[in-house]
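Dear H.,

Thanks for agreeing to be a second pair of eyes. The structure we're designing against is below in token form, covering all 217 positions.
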């Protein structure tokens, strides 16, 4: 078995088919840029959530949150540094709780994945489907579009956060309600000192003034 296939098998077993796509999305999205450890946690948590919610008819156990159970089960038998603080008592307690709820703790433990499995899955198994997109992003035009999209999203977020922050300051009486918010990312051309909008600059493949000058000269 190719390592990484476990992800597909587990997704199928627990009827969480979209989970594989989610891993790919989270891994390739450069804004969120999830680490393999994050993805491992996410995956295992989703598996446990689904088992628990099937077994407890949607009830969410306050004392045994799925992420905590995932952590403890992963710690079982592991000597990795990140599990150093976990005691065997905690692990046993979590396993007992699962068994009390008629969940096979050992089976569940062996169904959880390591970050290496996640890595193998993303690189070996999903590589072929993701490569087309990746190639497209590597052309100059693809890259230009990608950067523009990313910066434009970021600007909208900055705008929203700023607006919210200012409004909260107005209602707290810190600043008066007499402003007109104008946020724009600008870039300065070092050839002609002209300032222009950042996105415009990228869209125009550089400084428009300098380009016009060059064409005239
Ligand atoms: Zn210029």
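And this is the sequence the design step returned. I haven't edited it by hand at all.
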């Amino acid at each position: 078995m190719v390592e990484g296939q476990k992800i597909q098998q587990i997704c199928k077993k627990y009827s969480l088919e979209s989970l594989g796509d989610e891993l790919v999305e989270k891994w390739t999205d450069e804004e969120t840029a999830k680490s393999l450890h994050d993805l491992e946690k996410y995956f295992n948590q989703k598996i446990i959530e689904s088992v628990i919610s099937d077994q407890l008819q949607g009830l969410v156990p306050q004392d045994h949150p799925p992420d905590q159970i995932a952590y403890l089960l992963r710690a079982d038998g592991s000597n990795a540094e990140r599990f150093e603080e976990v005691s065997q008592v905690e692990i046993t307690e979590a396993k007992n709780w699962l068994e009390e709820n008629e969940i096979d703790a050992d089976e569940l433990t062996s169904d959880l994945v390591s970050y290496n499995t996640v890595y193998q899955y993303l690189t070996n198994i999903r590589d072929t489907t993701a490569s087309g997109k990746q190639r497209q992003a590597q052309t100059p035009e693809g890259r230009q579009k990608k950067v523009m999209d990313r910066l434009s999203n970021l600007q909208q977020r900055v705008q929203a956060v700023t607006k919210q922050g200012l409004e909260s300051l107005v209602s707290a009486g810190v600043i008066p309600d007499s402003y007109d918010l104008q946020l724009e990312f600008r870039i300065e051309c070092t050839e002609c000192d002209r300032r222009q909008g950042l996105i415009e600059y990228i869209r125009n493949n550089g400084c428009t003034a300098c380009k016009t000058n060059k064409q005239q000269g």
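Two observations from my side: The longest helix spans residues 140-171. Residues 169 and 175 are 6 Å apart (CA to CA).

Warmly,
E.
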